[in-house]
Write a structure and sequence with these properties.
Number of helices: 1
Order of helices and strands: HEEEEEEEEEE
Oligomer: single chain
Number of domains: 1
CATH architecture: Sandwich
Number of strands: 10
Mean pLDDT: 85
Largest sheet: 6 strands, antiparallel
Strand content: over 45%
CATH superfamily: Galactose-binding domain-like
CATH class: Mainly Beta
Structural class: mainly beta
CATH topology: Jelly Rolls
Length: 159
C-alpha cells in the first residue's frame, strides 16, 4: 500500500521537529556522595548509613563535575527511625582552586520535614547550594537535633 505524499510530508516534518526538540533539550545528570565520616556507621538490612543526632555531624566533600551548567536538585537521603518531624542544620562551603576554602559559606538552621518510619526520604538542600560552578569544591556538614537520623548520602542532579 502506497502512502499519500501529503501524509508522508507531515510525518517527515513531525520526525524532524521531534529530532530537533530532543537535540535542544539538556539532559539531567546526577551523582551520589557517601558520607565522608565513618565514626557511626550502621547497617539496616542492605543499607549502609551514618547515624546522626544532636552530638554527631555527617560530612561530605565533593567536586562539581566539569560538564555542570546548573543545579536541578540537591538532597540528603535518610531512612527515618520513627514517624516524626525531623529537624536539621546544614553548613556548606564552596571554593574553586586558588580561593580560600571558606570564602563562600552557606547555612540553613532548624529546617524540618515530617517523615514516616523506614521510608526513604529526601531532605532538600538545594537552597544552600545555589550559584555553583563547574569544578567548584564543596564541603557540607549536616547535623540534626532529632534523636537519631540514619543518613544514607547526598544526591546532586544537574544540567
Amino acid at each position: 500500500m502506497k502512502m499519500p505524499k501529503k501524509v508522508f510530508a507531515v510525518l517527515a516534518v513531525l520526525f524532524l521537529l521531534g529530532a530537533q526538540y530532543n537535540r535542544s533539550a539538556t539532559p539531567t545528570k546526577e551523582f551520589f556522595v557517601k558520607p565522608g565520616n565513618q565514626s557511626a556507621v550502621g547497617i539496616l538490612d542492605d543499607w549502609i548509613h551514618i547515624s546522626a543526632g544532636s552530638t554527631a555531624s555527617v560530612l561530605y566533600t565533593f567536586v562539581i563535575p566539569a560538564d555542570f551548567t546548573s543545579l536541578v536538585e540537591a538532597v540528603i537521603l535518610i531512612i527515618p527511625d520513627a514517624s516524626e518531624t525531623v529537624q536539621w542544620d546544614l553548613d556548606a562551603s564552596v571554593a574553586a582552586v586558588g580561593e580560600d576554602y571558606n570564602s563562600d559559606t552557606r547555612q540553613a538552621l532548624n529546617e524540618t520535614k515530617a517523615v514516616t518510619i523506614n521510608d526513604l526520604t529526601e531532605l532538600d538542600i538545594s537552597g544552600q547550594l545555589t550559584g555553583l560552578a563547574a569544578s567548584d569544591y564543596v564541603g557540607v556538614r549536616f547535623q540534626s537535633d532529632t534523636n537519631t537520623l540514619r543518613i544514607v548520602g547526598l544526591r546532586i542532579k544537574y544540567n
